[in-house]
């Protein structure tokens, strides 16, 4: 009679639970990319958050045993993440960009942007310019407006969004970072409700996914507001409007920088006359384009 394989031991330490969680991710087929690209990283983040441990905890923390109450809470957390497909950032009500914590919830897209690495490079793209006014179009949670305000401490920042819900979250983040005097929030469809002023920088991570692609998104991405994803039939609807309205809103030395996802070929084709410049990113995606005021006039 064949011997029965012993049942695997129940997870005991944080390291055990991390191994267990990784196996659950593999079985579930959960989509990643909203706060981490790897199951290990997202699972560890959720575990540390659930146990109220610092995100920069040393590896020694993996040997920490969980109490029965903590273990039950961890199981519930991963059931919501992997069975209900609730995005991790909506479970923790936070995300981190540029070393800063931001509140997020179901009212806004979970921010992930190449501008985290590119905003510190913007002064090099405007040599000799003292940036006094910048705008974040389609601001969502307001995180990029806040990063702009920190990069340019003498600048006034406008943050625009069509969604009142998104602006409510942006207000929470602006106030948490004590930037009420420097960041003005505006309910506006691109620039429709904002009078023309000469910006040194117009920055945007707009909706750029083609509608048909949005229809096929994984459950985790469908949990985010569709308004923040859907860029119209070809993904370019908001970008076209932004560039058309930018003409009368840029200082003579000003720049427009837009994150465009997989639309590089379409942008290069449709806006060839505007001479888009592509900014290099660490992973080689290079999906942020720059337009200069002289070409938009």
TrEMBL record:
Broad class of enzyme this protein falls into: transferase
One of the record's GO molecular function terms: nucleic acid binding
Domain Methyltransferase small as annotated: residue spans: 130-219
Keywords assigned by UniProt, alphabetized: Methyltransferase, Ribonucleoprotein, Ribosomal protein, S-adenosyl-L-methionine, Transferase
InterPro entries: DNA_methylase_N6_adenine_CS, HemK-like, Ribosome_uL3_MTase, SAM-dependent_MTases_sf, Small_mtfrase_dom
Listed EC numbers: 2.1.1.298
Keyword Glycoprotein: no
Domain of life: Bacteria
UniProt GO cellular component terms: cytosol; ribosome
Listed SUPFAM superfamilies: S-adenosyl-L-methionine-dependent methyltransferases
The keyword Transferase is assigned to this record: yes
Any GO BP annotation: methylation
NCBIfam families (alphabetical): hemK_fam (TIGR00536), L3_gln_methyl (TIGR03533)
Name the UniProt record assigns to this protein: 50S ribosomal protein L3 N(5)-glutamine methyltransferase
Organism: Horticoccus luteus
Gene expressing this chain: prmB
